[in-house]
Amino acid sequence: MLKSLKKWFDSYTRRFDSPDPAVQNAMDLKREHTLCVCGNIVDIGCSLDLCADDLLAAEVSALLHDIGRFEQYSRYCTFSDAKSEDHAALGVSVICTHELLGEFVPETAQVIIEAVKFHNRAALPDSINQHSLFFLKMLRDADKLDIWRVVTSYYHKSGTDRDPAIELNLPDVPHISEKVYEALLRNQTVNTADIRSLNDLKLLQIGWIYDVNFSRTFELIREKGYLEKLCSALPKECARAQKICSKACRYLSNKQGC
Ligand SMILES: [Fe+2]
Questions:
Q1: How far is the CA of 245 from the centre of ligand 1 (A)?
Q2: How far is the centre of ligand 1, averaged over its atoms, from the C-alpha of 66 (Å)?
Q3: Per-residue pLDDT for the chain (258 aa), expressed as one digit of tens each?
Q4: What is the reported pTM?
Q5: Domain match, 50 and 176 both
Q6: 69 CA distance to ligand 1 centroid (A)?
Q7: What is the 3-state secondary structure (H, E, C) of the chain?
Q8: Which domain range does residue 180 map to?
């Protein structure tokens, strides 16, 4: 089942390939991201001793979680949900239109749909059952791990080539938005709708640390040095940014051994 869904994913996403290098880069970015999220969720699932059926459901949710991104970019030329539409809802409609989950029992299909639908919400929903919530948490951790991989490597890349698909067309100005700063002072994640600058985006990505669910994820964050790398991409002279960074690093070190 996984093999045929992977084959479908490949042929579906190839339809969005483009001679425009910027579009092609965006499509490649999401294809690679998806495969890495699949790897991450299997890693987390194995650390939790998941059975084969649950591992399969988790991996399928990872494979399909960003399926709406391809349609989103081709329609709006951006990955910003705020400037276009909710890519998770778009993904659910792609899954339903193509009847991708017909081979799963309805309960499992529902778990996968809910994971896709809520994977990008600022906070966990309270409208789903514990079983769905568990799969959603795995997906959110696996997704964040890979976004951290992509952005930390991008922020530290030398050269002046900007990637609007990663920067979401946000201005690189010293500004930090009040709502972003206040949420992070309360150890809360930032709402995407509140970001106005590239610094806000970096801070939002730092704030994801408050939404990590599993000890394996914390372990990988420490191992890869994601938080330190994100913090060093922010201006050293900005006291507000530095305060948020110290707070986040303290939070991570308190998670030691959890
Ligand atoms: Fe993703």
A1: 24
A2: 5
A3: 899 999 999 999 999 999 999 899 999 999 999 999 999 999 999 999 999 999 999 999 999 999 999 999 999 999 989 889 999 999 999 999 999 999 999 999 999 999 999 999 988 999 999 999 999 999 999 999 999 999 999 998 855 678 888 888 888 888 899 999 999 999 999 988 899 999 999 999 999 999 999 999 999 999 999 999 999 999 999 999 999 999 999 999 998 655
A4: 0.92
A5: no
A6: 9
A7: CHHHHHHHHHHHHHCCCCCCHHHHHHHHHHHHHHHHHHHHHHHHHHHCCCCHHHHHHHHHHHHHCCCHHHHHHHHHCCCCCCCCCCHHHHHHHHHHHCCCCCCCCHHHHHHHHHHHHHCCCCCCCCCCCHHHHHHHHHHHHHHHHHHHHHHHHHHCCCCCCCCHHHHCCCCCCCCCCHHHHHHHHCCCCCCHHHCCCHHHHHHHHHHHHHHCCCHHHHHHHHHHCHHHHHHCCCCCCCHHHHHHHHHHHHHHHHCCCC
A8: 170-254
